Amino acid sequence: MFFNTFLGIKLRKFVTQIIIIFGFILITIYVIKIKNPISKNNKTSSEVIFEQESFNETLLKKRKKQSAPILKVKIKYGDTLEKILRNNNFKNDEIFDAIKETKKVFNPKNIVNGQTIIIKYQLTNKKKEKKIESISLPLEFNKSVLLERIEEKFLAKIVSEKTIKRVIKKKGFITDSLYLSALRSGVDVKTITETIRIFSFSVDFQRDIWPKDTFEILYEEELLKYNKSKKDPGNILYANLVLKSGVSLKLYRFENEKKEIEYFDETGKSAQKLLMKTPIDGARISSGYGKRRHPILGYNVAHRGVDFAAPKGTPIYAAGNGIIEEKGRKGAYGKYIRIRHANNYKTAYAHLSKFAKTSGRVKQGQTIGYVGSTGRSTGPHLHYEIIRNGKRINPQKLKLPSGKKLKGSELKLFLEKKNKIDRRLDNLDVY
Questions:
Q1: Which residue, 221, 233, 255, 427, is the most exposed by fewest CB within 10 angstroms?
Q2: Concatenated DSSP letters for 175-225?
Q3: Burial class of residue 342 in the structure, from the number of CB atoms within 10 Å of its CB (0-12 exposed, 13-18 middle, 19+ buried)
């Protein structure tokens, strides 16, 4: 009896000790799990995500470090692609290979002043020497030449960006000149210049335009799809000048079946004539045709032209289609241009500050030079002459035949297009 009791007590103590030891082990394991809840091979989803994010951040940092540096170079007068690359420490063999490949799609000599070349590169082991990764060379509004390194060779191609088109309506009062007033209204220079050319056959911008006259222009505009800040003006569909006299000069763009483009009034009568009334916008007549007291010589002389006073640098337009037969310095005329037109007409432009990049044949309304004060001159102005059959005539009294009048099927087609433009004008807000 005693022995059995003794064994029972011993057994109970042993079991108790086992339980205590096992409990201690469990507590130890639990504490370890609290301090380090997950092993390398058994992670929770939250920790996996955290570690993935950390990895991505590291990768991005790594890529940032590895991404090619960018060099932007604005093209200046006299620059060539070869010159730009040499001036920026690119390897000679790189330059040769890059230009050779570029020539397959574009002549690098035709790069335009003011454009920006974008060059991605990598630095070589040698100090300051660069290795070309890619070159982006702008061509037109939405086109560029892209030269890329593929392994150890270059590949050149012309790439185009997607564009969207829209129609813009601009309207405003003329306070000083059509050019400046339209510019303040947000119309681009190209569109303004073309608008002036359109009206120049029927409007004398020096005498016919007055403050509070109004203008209205409807024109197309093209934008890059992914960079809408970059714009390119398109065709002028409609233009209107409402003058102080109450006269409204509405002109509509019309392209015939021969793809010829002209501007016509509401009745289908062409606005175009042989010569423009005035080859400059926003100028005042400072000296008319005929005898006058010469401001420098001090005695009366015959003035065989008209002087237009205007700020230095004001654009001067070709009065008509023709061929430049003289261009350069000409004594008292200073910088001088003479253009030969049809029907034995010639026009001459003197005292220019500089010439536009033109030679040979020019179009009516094309910029040929800029107002200056070269030669025998007291201030910036344009001296303008019209010569007919070898004799100088008064530009202000020149009467030219009216333009052609549309008839038949052409007139019908024009009126259809005119009505479409009118509906657009009614439904479009001023931009």
A1: 427
A2: SS-HHHHHHHTT--HHHHHHHHHHHTTT--TTTT--TT-EEEEEEEEEEET
A3: exposed
The domain defined by 70-160 carries CATH number 3.10.450.350 = yes
CATH for the stretch 284-397: 2.70.70.10
Domain map of the chain by residue range?
70-160, 163-264, 284-397
Structure tokens belonging to residue 424: 């657009």
Nearest to 340 by CA among 356, 362, 357: 362
* Residue 153 phi, psi (nearest 5): -120, 160
Give the pLDDT confidence of 314-370 residue by residue, as tens digits.
888 998 889 999 999 988 889 999 999 988 889 999 999 989 888 789 988 889 999
Distances in whole angstroms, Cα of residue 94 to Cα of each of 18, 104, 129? 81, 16, 11
Q: pLDDT tens across 69-107, in order?
A: 888 888 887 888 888 888 888 888 888 988 899 888 888
The residues facing 32 across adjacent strands are none
pLDDT digits (tens, 9 = 90+) for 6-30: 445 555 666 676 777 766 666 666 6
d(CA 226, CA 229): 9
Q: Is the pTM of this model over 0.70?
A: no
Q: Give the pairing of strands 290-293 and 335-340.
A: unpaired
